[in-house]
Amino acid sequence: MRRAWLTGATVLVAAGVLAGCSPPRYDLVAAYNGDDGKPWIMLAPCGRNDITSVHVSSRPTDPGPSPYTPGAQPASGWRSGFDPGVGGGSLPLFEPPASWGAQRDGEQRILPGRRYSVEFYSPEDGVYYGEVNFTAEDLAGLEPGEVWAGDRAMTRKAFREYRADKC
Questions:
Q1: Residues with Cβ < 8 Å from 45, sequence gap 6 or more?
Q2: How do residues 49-77 score in pLDDT, each as one tens digit?
Q3: How do 146-149 and 152-155 pair as beta strands?
Q4: Stretch 82-106: mean pLDDT, rounded?
């Protein structure tokens, strides 16, 4: 009986540790086409939470050759310095504020054949990540007033409602 109790307790502790290791990810970032014709992103953390890092990256939609192979399609993206200290807002995809100390990778424009990922990290209210994944084709298919979030096109109102539900 003691062995069964000890085994059960061990399994419960292990499950709790594994479940708590990784902060949750929510679709709290939206991508859209700005009035200026450039791709924009909307960072929408919960409440008045601060964002302590932002990362824009890309990878080929067709895995093909390694990115280190000569002639392979270049990377495109950037990552903020340690603490941009913002509570959310909108900005052009490839124009982070100078105060963020962003480190840029490759070309700073949408490239065909790449899937883009935008993530932010917030250490407040239980720690979580906000993210969105999209392609140039996803943005090209948006109607005026729509954003890309949660792997689909939606209205800005639907995005705000989704955010309210997650937060």
A1: 28, 51, 87, 88, 120, 122, 124, 130
A2: 888 899 999 988 876 665 555 555 667 89
A3: antiparallel
A4: 86
- Residue 35 has which token pair? 């009035």
Cα 106 to Cα 57, 59, 82, 132, 141, distances in angstroms: 10, 12, 20, 20, 25
Q: Which amino acid is at 120?
A: F
Q: Which of 124, 43, 52, 51 is nearest to 83 (CA)?
A: 52
Residue 52, amino acid: T
Look at the alpha carbons of 157, 159, 162, 167 in this order and tell me if their dihedral is positive or negative: negative
For the question of whether the overall pTM of this predicted structure is more than 0.85, the answer is no
3-state secondary structure string, the chain? CHHHHHHHHHHHHHHHHHHCCCCCEECCEEEEECCCCCEEEEECCCCCCCECEEEEEEEECCCCCCCCCCCCCCCEEEECCCCCCECCEEEECCCCCHHHCCEEEECCCCCCCEEEEEEEEECCCCCEEEEEEEEHHHHHCCCCCEEEECCEEEEHHHHHHHHHHHC
Q: Are the CB atoms for 163 and 45 separated by under 8 Å?
A: no
